[in-house]
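Hello again,

I reread your note about wanting to compare the complex against the isolated chains. To keep things tidy I'm splitting this into two emails, and this first one only covers the full assembly. Below are the input lines as submitted, including protein chains and any nucleic acid or small-molecule components. They are followed by the predicted structure of everything together. The single-chain runs will come separately.
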Amino acid sequence: MTMRHPKDSSGRQELLPWLAVLALFLTFPAWLGEYWLGSAIVGLFYVMMAASWNLLAGFTGQVSFAHAAFAGVGAYTSGILAVKLGLHPLLGVPIGVAAAALLSLGLGALCIRMGGIYLSLTTLAFSEILRLVINNEYQVTRGTMGLKVPFILGDYSKATAFYLMLAAAAVVLLVIRWLLKSDLGLMFRAVQNDEVAADSLGVPVTRIRVTAFVVSGAMAGLAGGLYGHYLTLITPHIPSLDLMFLVLAMAVIGGMGTFAGPVVGALFLEVLAEYIRVWGEFHVLIFSLVALGFARFLPGGIVGLAGAWLARRGTPAGKGGAA
Amino acid sequence: MNELLRVEGISKRFGGVQALGEISFSLGEHELLGLIGPNGAGKTTLFHLIAGTLLPDTGQISFAGHDVTRLKAYQTCRLGIARTFQVTRPFAKLSCLENVEVALVGAEAPVAREDRGERCAELLGLVGLKGKERLDAGQLNLIDKKRLEMARALATNPRLILLDEVLGGLNSLEMGQAMDLIRLIHQDMGATVIWIEHVMGAIMRLSQRVLVLDQGELIFAGTPEQVAQDRRVIEAYLGEQDA
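Full-complex prediction:
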């Protein structure tokens, strides 16, 4: 089996840095302090968002602008169930995930055949529609005031929220990793590279794309649901285009189409955002400009840059020693 | 000879251009059919329609007892129709091995993971890409990209294979190798072949029967010897002779 998938050859070895990062994260509640622990939780939310968006955009080539909207669907579904029916968030969040997946399926079936820019436009429109509905259905969503929801589990504790987010992020990343190594992942990449050729070789292109869309949407629903119950106030900021573009910038700056890219990008920008918070809304503008620069001059992002640097030093990392 | 493919009155229009008008022909099992005609005659469009990449405006296509007129390309592929593309379409960022593996995974019953490496290497060796398994397909030169298309098409275990100008741009040595490969596919593997080509010597040598398309119409069908003598075919290629 040594002949297959050059990127597979170092499977176990590749896991080590991830385990090291996980171990480091596990110690955070012990020493990081309340403020930065909060930032770490937000960072993990963005890790899930950017990684799942990248699964769709980076590995099947479908640039969706509805990703934040699906996070909003997850958050509001669970939040409303908690407020109106008193459902426990740990039951509500899975229902929110299912709702996000179902809406992804509907939207995907509707617009994926169009492909390219039309997919982007339709998802953008969906995002706006959702925002308008949330703003105007005041009785249910509390509009821009935000919906007050119970904390995710037991009494309010950042450590609890952090560990839950960490577990969820780890599961999301593991599922993405597994998908990319599976036959489905190979078909994702084939469809992204050339859908006419993939079609001619027996790959059901539309079904593959819808699958990626649904998996990615469900992951956004999970991220959004957990995040909302951590904040205990769900506002239209979650399904906003502001958040959408931030996630996009994270994936692009970290390295679209790579596994580690969105994770690096999300954590990097979240930490950076803490330092330039004083600039207010301008930080989204700055991130967008930086992302534009990366897209034009460094399409591999930070991870691509690091990989090239390691390759130059002759270290067999990054590409797993295959190249 | 058993009939494998039957095309009845299919046509295709792109806006104001009638790319193909009411084409009918049938193809026997294990036949090697040459398809020639000037540029823009509709040869590649015919392939698109048979393979299901495009849908015909009228007519019917049946393959091995199935009506495949409205089927998509991935469905006709699973029934046993494979093709190569005139303008090559490699999965540029996938390795050659992975390019072939896609075809093994796309099958109705995907080939088991542990058997794939061997099968891919075997097919790549067959088309002359041994040693290039790990290269990204985007890095290959044109000739190797054409070889890769053949390997991918063969990986689908086709009963009918549609070859679209596999000789274009090759030198005489490479052309010989490619023709050996076509002979192998046709005779040793027992596949039925439709082959579009502009290199007349090659197509006349290997084809059992030749169809000639001109401006979307089927103007001639017959043996290679008959084609070379036919006045209409000569006119289509060289223009009418002034009296």
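For quick reference: The domain at 3-80+158-238 of chain B is CATH 3.40.50.300 (Rossmann fold).

B.
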